[in-house]
User: Fold this.
Amino acid sequence: MDSDTHLSETTYRDALRRALDESMREDPRIIVIGEEVGRYGGAYGVTKDLIDKFGDARLIDTPISEPAIVGAAIGAAMTGLRPVAELMYVDFLGLVMDQLANQAAKIRYMFGGQIGVPMVLRTQGGTGRSAGAQHSQSLEGWVMHTPGLRLAMPATAADAYHLLRHALTLPDPVVFIEHKALYARKELVDFAAPVPPWGQAVIRRAGDDVCLVAYSRMVHVALAAAERLAERGITAEVIDLRTLNPLDMATVAASVARIGRAVVVSEGYLTAGVAAELAARISEECFDFLEDPVIRIAGEDVPIPVSPALEAAAVPDAALIVETVARMLG
Amino acid sequence: MDSDTHLSETTYRDALRRALDESMREDPRIIVIGEEVGRYGGAYGVTKDLIDKFGDARLIDTPISEPAIVGAAIGAAMTGLRPVAELMYVDFLGLVMDQLANQAAKIRYMFGGQIGVPMVLRTQGGTGRSAGAQHSQSLEGWVMHTPGLRLAMPATAADAYHLLRHALTLPDPVVFIEHKALYARKELVDFAAPVPPWGQAVIRRAGDDVCLVAYSRMVHVALAAAERLAERGITAEVIDLRTLNPLDMATVAASVARIGRAVVVSEGYLTAGVAAELAARISEECFDFLEDPVIRIAGEDVPIPVSPALEAAAVPDAALIVETVARMLG
Amino acid sequence: MTQRANLPLFDLYRTMRRIRSFEERVAELYVRGLSAGSMLHLSIGEEAAAAGVCAALRPADSFTTHHRGHGIFLARGADPKRMMAEIAGKAEGYCAGKGGSMHIADMALGHLGANAIVGGGIPHVVGAGLSYKHLGKDAVSVAFFGDGAMQQGILYESMNMAALWALPVLFVCVNNQYGMGTRVDRATRVTDFAARAGALGLLAESADGEDVTAVFSAAETLVAEARGGHPGFLAISCFRFFGHGRMDKSPYRSAEEEEAGRKRDPVLRARAALVTRGESDEAALDALDLAIAREMDDAIDFAAAAAPPAFDALFRDVFAPGEPAPEPLRARLDRVLAGA
Amino acid sequence: MTQRANLPLFDLYRTMRRIRSFEERVAELYVRGLSAGSMLHLSIGEEAAAAGVCAALRPADSFTTHHRGHGIFLARGADPKRMMAEIAGKAEGYCAGKGGSMHIADMALGHLGANAIVGGGIPHVVGAGLSYKHLGKDAVSVAFFGDGAMQQGILYESMNMAALWALPVLFVCVNNQYGMGTRVDRATRVTDFAARAGALGLLAESADGEDVTAVFSAAETLVAEARGGHPGFLAISCFRFFGHGRMDKSPYRSAEEEEAGRKRDPVLRARAALVTRGESDEAALDALDLAIAREMDDAIDFAAAAAPPAFDALFRDVFAPGEPAPEPLRARLDRVLAGA
Ligand SMILES: Cc1ncc(C[n+]2csc(CCOP(=O)(O)OP(=O)(O)O)c2C)c(N)n1
Ligand SMILES: Cc1ncc(C[n+]2csc(CCOP(=O)(O)OP(=O)(O)O)c2C)c(N)n1
Ligand SMILES: [Mg+2]
Ligand SMILES: [Mg+2]
Assistant:
């Protein structure tokens, strides 16, 4: 990674590190606090070597105390710092939902607007490593259902960089969920290219027959499906939401209204999750344009099994999208 | 409350107590464990006097340690007891989501079906007491989004009784969410009347113009709206879901398919919550029958303010339903 | 180790009397149906903890409190009018009527917030301590909580972090003997809380909450140590004179226990000491008490007269001003119904 | 207080050797690409904790473990074949291939489950203890966890409950000096963990995890006490010989530290003692080791040959058999697309 060149082959992991590195250089109030973020360099290597640049007062290795990590980040954010708290796995949200949802998300409101909690909770989720039921979930649904929290879920290295850079300037708590299966994904990133604003979705592929709405790793699954659909003469538009709060329904609705068919794709559990929200909103906003019901393709409503074959079957894949779209249009 | 008569004027609170009382008499494995469930009789009086009947080995007052309360209930359930853990406010779910969602909900699955966790997590939620942002929420959305958990949300005294009685026989963890504003609600209950099975919704009022789908306190709000709509010549069918897992879509879909219009009503936050799931499912299953998009009336996406006027405005009321339905049909 | 400030008992008495008087008015507010909700937790009997610890703090210091925090905030210098207005859910309250009794906060006075989650505010002072250390700010942050919170896991995580990182932090347990209806010895086998903190490496002390001077003196030492990077813990033993909340008549404890507990009255004890020591006399104290009573009557009148928040406050302050805000349901319905 | 069972060191050695041998095969499984995932945590160096404590348990007793629990379960009598198959994610594994290394459980052997949430399994033994007490069952439940879990709040909540209710429960901290890359003295200021448990009213002891006899002896006392309603805590000091997981090469610690740590080898120490004391000889021990190695080779072959779970297992066991099950996505899509 060379911060002088703007165009470079970069992994998602390195893009995140670059974002942290640059933001920390610009803003001395930023600290990173979490388990193994310092000397170890992060369980997935995102903060590797940053401790050498910024020291252990800014890369703070913590005990294994998730609730207090988030709580400490809140207190720090209220008193002049801009903490990046790291939760090693999004599955550990269950330990911190009180601090996240009852404290961070509500402090500005409960206290009548006196103060905000400008912190970023970085974590990672998803399947792909046979890590079992407690280390493979996609729990963004809980976060999206909590007023007061921003929520970013980058799919690409460029977005990992830009969204994290942006998150580190926002006045409110941001939950930033990376995907464990994307860290090693490489991509040519133009760091100087104009950036869509925070909260704006992007159309990753244009098409006319169906609109695939996805985020995080599922963007790539949807793109793979679109590729295969193209072979069958079906053109799929693929929208990458980038952030779930704010949710850019304008982009989605414009696309679905034009096309008339939508499939939403989420790795999270199907029931009462992000896919439900997307389907409900699209149905509300594009009702008169829909030729089919909005189709949800999401994680099965089962815990994630450790067996690699079962794990893969528990979440959406391109084949299922292709098959489903083909049936919709058939 | 006289357990010899079957028909009696009963509050929701007393119905719950009666269910606990009878089930505990029948099944010596049942224990109740939670803060103030014993001598105090429960923060909302549900377990009042039960300690005199069953003793402090079965009504176990605990320290203020929510994660360990749920964790202890899990261990007890795995070793031969049938615990009823009480969480004083559903808002405290944030403290126990790890034990609830990563442990209780997944143990049967992770361990290959060796063992289940037959416990009931009783709690209460909702607005109505100006209890503020951390004591007034409706967080059933988080639970419904978690595979492995049953979820009951009774609206009536009769259901409070029957659903709790039933929950105490189920082999899997049940989250049982009462509504703080319903405890004092009185109703003539026929305890001997035939009971709809667990997981079956009931039509509380028949109608032809719109189907209102609700649960918990919102059933009464929907019924009040239906009453007012009737004055305008609009007949609303009101469905009380009773349980959210399982979710009785058969009843809902049959009604909506016949009527062609649905409004789902939930006190929980709108985004990515129960209302989203209901809207998405109805849209999926009744697409060809819908004359309007499924309308969601739910809690505003804001923390619940303490000011009574603002608190009331943060959640759905009958006026909004009436107005909305009138516009749909207008 | 530290230098004793020569804080007159008179000042501590005044602070305590103001708390007592205020809390009596809060009860009145409730009875008159003017409070926002019934979630009111009075700190009568705990005045010495509030007055003693807050007197040991400097203006730059900060703190969080639990749900029974009126007294602490008053001791810190809160305006009783704005407090009472907040408790009544009015727009002129500290939190614009959105927080209420359990969520009063005031950044200007270093009050990082009252919390309705038992233990919820404790880790925030760890973060504040980190900030102060990181920014080189000479300030201490204090977490106030009850004996009930001694059984919440987050306390141990927070104390461990404070000790590990040598933060300018103090943990103060206001042990009023009860968590709702549960006497402390039914919540834990060992009620010597200081030992727990000591085992984690904090400087730990206990103080008699009937004796405001003792509390002040212990707090002063511990605050000074915390300022120097030796975080501490202080257990203050007192008695919750009344029920947990306003509807709780404490049927779970005996009349004798209540009577004995209420004899441990830090306000009366300080008053008596002032007279005995000749630092004041009954007449002067009566006059002071009366002036305070009037001030608090004014607070209640202020709250009663104040306006409730305007409807549009509902959607304000979910996020910072200027940031995308949640769309009100009616606006959404308008759009959807117009489209359909 | 308790009576020393005369457990021969030879048996403890055999248990430890089986663990060591098994864990070496787990590493091989991973290298051969046969493990389900990379979440494999070897307990090499910690054998005495597993062997010593489990030897003090009776068949009716139960326990939970952390993510580094292979050794504990083996010491309890697990079948290495079914363990290895589970680690490989196969249908014949203990959990039908759905749990894997971090979620092995076996109700028949009282293994209430390994847990991948640090601290997650700790409160379950409190519940088990409640059951035993309530049902009048003569059994003890033991929570095993690492030094890292000493900073998880739920441990304190659990210890407090066990002490308060005098439950037949024992908390065992396998202190291998590291939580991932964090040495224990970077996670806490005071590493004397027993003091914390003592402050909550538990019988608390420490034992040297290089000396299996010492571990056994301490465990025996504490288990007996727990059985009598005096819950306990045992901190066992040892060293994690290898990285946290299989990909971790431990760059955060020095070669010297590793070398010194690995010298604290409970297996070799017991072996040497057996020879020195004349309870066995090199030849016999070599033969034993070889037999164990063969057994473990068989386990790896068994796992390699075993079948993966069938696809429909995906939807099984979310709820009990016969109860409404989640609808598979494809079934739903069939319905929806057929309707549309
Ligand atoms: C996490 C949590 N659990 C339970 C409650 C309900 N509750 C409110 S106050 C209280 C008792 C607290 O006791 P203590 O900490 O001693 O404070 P005190 O009320 O005595 O001042 C309880 C159980 C809560 N608000 N938050
Ligand atoms: C709640 C939680 N936090 C963090 C992790 C990630 N993690 C897994 S093991 C581990 C270290 C645990 O250390 P220790 O308790 O000492 O056990 P050891 O690995 O040394 O056996 C961490 C941080 C986790 N699995 N669960
Ligand atoms: Mg108390
Ligand atoms: Mg360790």
Summary: Residues 7-190 of chain B form a domain with the Rossmann fold fold (CATH 3.40.50.970). Chain B is about 35% helix and 20% strand.
